[in-house]
Amino acid sequence: MVCLGVVIVSFISWRCKGINGQFPGPTIRAEVGDTLHIAVTNKLFTEGISIHWHGIRQFGTPWADGTASISQCAIIPGETFHYRFKLDKAGTFLYHGHNGMQRTGGLYGSLIVDLPKGQKEPFHYDDEINILLSDWWHKSVQDLEAGLSLDAESFRWVYEPQSLLINGRGQFGCSLGANFINHSLPVCHFKGDEECAPYIVRVLPNKTYRMRIASVASLVSLNFAISNHKMVVVEADGNYVQPFTVDKIDIYSGESYSVLITTNQNPNQNYWISSSHQDNNVSTTQALTLLNYKRISPSILPSFPPPPTFPWYDFEGRKAFTKKILALKGTPQPPKYSQRRIVFLNTQDLINGYIKFVLNGISLSLPPTPYLGSIKFKLKNAFDWRAPPENYPQDYDIDNEETTKNLNSTLGNMVYMFPLNQVVDVVLQNALGIGPNSSAFHPWHLHGHDFWVVGFGEGKFKDGDEKSFNLKNPPLKNTIVVFPYGWTAIRFRADNPGVWAFHCHMEPHLHMGMGVVFAEGVQYVKGIPDQALACGLTGEMFVNKNTHS
Ligand code: C2O
Ligand code: CU
Question: Which reaction is catalysed here (predicted)?
Fold first, then answer.
C-alpha cells in the first residue's frame, strides 16, 4: 500500500512554524510494509527546510532521511520535495525539521507505525493515547540562533524555555496547579476551546491504555508522570523492552516510549498529567493537563498536588531509570565482538573566540554540498576527506577544563567511513565543558540505525571496560543519554548504505557543533532524486552535464 500525505510547512502564527495549519503537525499513521509518500511544500518565505523521519532507518532510501547538508539539499521556499520510503518496523516515532534550529521553532509531529493486520503486540491494551512533549521559547529561533553564534564575550545561551508543551499546548503566566505549588502564579482557567487550553486525556474506567510518549524538546530533559497511575514501560524508541513499572519516566529529547496504564482509580475525580523540566535550572513551570474518566467535567481540578518535580542533579534517580531499560526476550542480540571502537570525548572549547561543542577536538560545521552526493560522486573538494580522530589524548583529564587546551580544537566536516557491515562500538565519553560543573546530559541520536546500548560507566572509559558490556539483553534504541562525568557505550552494525548523522539531540548543542557524520556502503546507494542533489557542487555537476549534452 502507498500512503500519500501532503505536508505543507508554513507560518501559522507569529514565529511559530506549523504544518498544514496545525501545530504540532498532523500525526502520520501507517502500517509496516506501507510505503509513505509525503510531499513537503515549503511555504516559508526565506528559509530552506528538510524533514527528518526520526527512528525510521530508511533502508534503500538514505536520500529520504531529511537531513539538510547530509542526505539532501534543503527544500527552498516555494518548492515541493517528495519523500518516499518504506516502513519496515512498527513503533512510536517522530518527524521534525532538520535544517538549523527549526525544530525549536515548532516544526514537528508524531509518526506512528502499526503492526501489519493480523500480527499482535506482545502486550494487551484496549485503546491508545498519543502524547508529544516539547518546550517553547518566546524569542524567535532566529534570535536564539543569533545569540549562540556570537563570540564568547557576547555569547547568549538560550537558557530555559518559557513553557513546556503537551501536544502543543502549554501555559504561561498561570498554572493549573498554582494552588499547590508555592509560588505567586494564579490558577489558569479555561473553558476548554481556547487555542492554548490543555489537551485533556479522556479515558473510560477499567481499561488498559497504551500511552505513546515522545519528546521533541529542543533542550530539556523531562519527566512525565500521571498521579495515582503506575506506568508499565513496554516500548522504547520503537523496540520492545522487558516490561517494568514506574511512577514517572525520564524522557530525553529524541526518545519515545509506550507505557501501559490501567484506569482503575476513582472515576469521579480528575488526575494530573505532568511534564516537568529536569535541567540545570528548574524555574520553568511544569506542564499540566488532566486525565479525565469521562464521568465528571474535565475542568474540575484535582484536590491534591501535582506529581513532584525532580532536580536536575538527581543523577542517581535518572541513571536508575535508564538502566531499567532492557530488551524484551526475542530481540536480536548484538554481535559478540566489535571490529572497531571509536571513543568520542564530549566537551566544549573555544575556537577562534567562539564557544563550540567538540568531539575529539572537532566541532561539526556542515558543508554546503550534501555528503550523500559528494561521497557517491567522489567530489574531492566537497568536504575534508581525511579520516577524523577515533580517540582523544590518553592523558586528557575529563575533570579539568584546562586540559581542553591540548585538544587544539578546530571546526571540521570529516566523515567516519565504515566498510559495509562492520561492527562498530562507539563510546561517548563525557567530560567538563567550559566552566565549573559543566558536564551535562547529552541525548545522542543515530540516524539510519538502531543500536544496542551495551554499557554505562563512571569516569573515564578504560581498555578492558568492554568486558562488562551487556551482550545478553541490551536494549535496541536510536537515542541514548550520556550522563555527566561518565560514559555510554553502544554497538551497531554499519549495514545501511548511506550517510548518517550521529548527534546530540539538544538542538542548541547540535547548532554549536555537537555531531559527527557516519558513512557506509555509499557506492551501493541508488535512485537519489535529482532534487536532493540540486545544490552546491552536485548541483553544478548537473548543470554542466545538461549544458554539455
Ligand atoms: Cu531527531 Cu538528527 O534528529
Ligand atoms: Cu548535548
Answer: 4 L-ascorbate + O2 = 4 monodehydro-L-ascorbate radical + 2 H2O
